[in-house]
Amino acid sequence: MISTSFEKELSGIKTISDKIRFLDRKGMERAEIARVLGKRYQHVRNVLERDASLSKADVADSDDVSLTRLPASLSVSSTGTIEMPKWICEAIGLYAGQKAVIRLEGDCLVIKSSSNALDEARRKLKQLLPAGSSLAEELLKERREEVEATQ
Fold this sequence. Notes:
It contains 8 helices and 4 strands; from the N terminus they run H-H-H-H-H-E-E-H-E-E-H-H. It is mainly α. The protein folds into 2 domains: about 5-55, no CATH class; about 60-150, no CATH class. It is elongated, with a radius of gyration of 24 Å. The model is unreliable at about 55-70 (pLDDT under 50).
């Protein structure tokens, strides 16, 4: 049987998968979760096993997390706001309140957290610069030369 406090919390959770995750975090056994929610054990197992496989380091550390490997659906509001599952946001290092950088590649939309996009830009810039060069030092040198030329 489920406690009334769990019932109240469950009523505010929209999806069955999220309810399964909630009850699992509360320490409930899979078979009990299936009974309480009126679902098959296999459904409960699939949700929890998929979550476990997504939280492994190979997904978190991968630079190539593609939606073909991680199927999900996004919803778009009438104003164009895109809502995506929390686990996708976490996989790309994007959290509530953060800004994201997006770009189109053909018919695909690439979404990155601003910090990941900045890191990528820095890596690309570093590859373009000769080894041992410093943009700051070059800028200071140019400014000194301009000052000397005006004197």
